[in-house]
């Protein structure tokens, strides 16, 4: 399994996946930098970091998962490499499991990068306008926990996008699903039932109601792992489209 993971990691190194992984959190940090410069008075650390986390969980993370899973799948769909891969003397499920692990590691890394780059953007904006230096203390531990919860709650939507991208060789089904899911998450922001919608589960990690956080986390992470296992079993047992 380790060898398969190393091979998958080398494939990512030669693709646009790493560019996407760097660009998505950087865009949030750039927005945070310019948005902070618009203010005339200092604001607390919590406001800036929660704002960046909300943008990430609400829009950038679901769209990044859509693009990331599609790119990872297209590395095999594009050159029609599935037949060669599946002919190797290794269990087929290991191939899909290795790809799923790479996707999850990238998403966790992107979520962490979103926090780190946002903190860097805040320091940079403070250097430009010292009077905007954030008030209060930077609770790094609490923000790391929130970042971890957001990534964990995104497991279910990631599993759905992963299966869709691997199942069909065309980009269209995976992109349509990701865009549609993000669209309904945005337009139905206030819906109480949104806690049960996979694309709204990450943003519910920032909710003030404890039951919403717990429900979205349990469903997103727990059900997400189950869907990942089911997706890998299904993909390993069928011929590629």
Description of the structure:
- This protein is mainly alpha-helical.
- Helix content is 74%, strand content 0%.
- It contains nine helices and no strands.
- The mean pLDDT is 90.
H/E topology pattern: HHHHHHHHH
Q: Give the amount of beta strand, in percent.
A: under 5%
Q: How much helical structure, as a percent, in the residues?
A: over 70%
Form type: globular
Got a strand count?
A: 0
Number of helices: 9
The secondary-structure class comes to: mainly alpha
Ends apart, CA distance between termini? 25 Å
**Structural Rg:** 19 Å
Biggest sheet overview: none
Mean pLDDT: 90
Q: What is the quaternary state of this protein?
A: single chain
Uncertain residue segments: none
Question: Which key features would you list for this structure?
Answer:
241 residues, mainly alpha, 9 helices, 74% helix, 0% strand, globular
Quick structural overview:
It contains 9 helices and no strands. It has helices spanning 2-13, 17-37, 45-77, 82-86, 92-128, 140-153, 155-167, 171-187, 210-236.
């Amino acid at each position: 399994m380790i060898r398969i993971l190393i091979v998958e990691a080398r494939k990512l190194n030669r693709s646009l996946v790493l560019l996407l992984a760097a660009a998505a959190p950087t865009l949030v940090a750039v927005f945070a930098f310019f948005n902070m410069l618009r203010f005339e008075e200092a604001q607390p650390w919590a406001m800036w970091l929660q704002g960046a986390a909300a943008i990430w969980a609400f829009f950038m993370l679901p769209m990044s998962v859509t693009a990331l899973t599609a790119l990872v799948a297209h590395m095999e769909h594009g050159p029609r490499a599935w037949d060669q891969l599946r002919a190797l003397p290794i269990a087929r499920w290991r191939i899909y499991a290795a790809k799923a692990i790479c996707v999850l590691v990238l998403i966790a890394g992107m979520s962490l990068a979103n926090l780190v780059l946002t903190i860097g953007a805040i320091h940079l904006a403070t250097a430009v306008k010292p009077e905007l230096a954030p008030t209060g203390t930077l609770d790094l531990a609490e923000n790391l926990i929130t970042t971890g919860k957001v990534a964990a709650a995104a497991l279910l939507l990631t599993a759905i996008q992963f299966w869709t991208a691997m199942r069909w060789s065309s980009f269209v089904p995976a992109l349509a699903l990701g865009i549609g899911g993000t669209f309904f998450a945005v337009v139905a922001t206030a819906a109480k039932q949104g806690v049960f919608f996979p694309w709204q589960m990450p943003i519910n990690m920032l909710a003030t109601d404890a039951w919403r956080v717990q429900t979205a986390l349990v469903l997103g992470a727990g059900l997400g792992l189950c869907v990942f296992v089911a997706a890998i079993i299904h993909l390993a047992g069928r011929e590629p489209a």
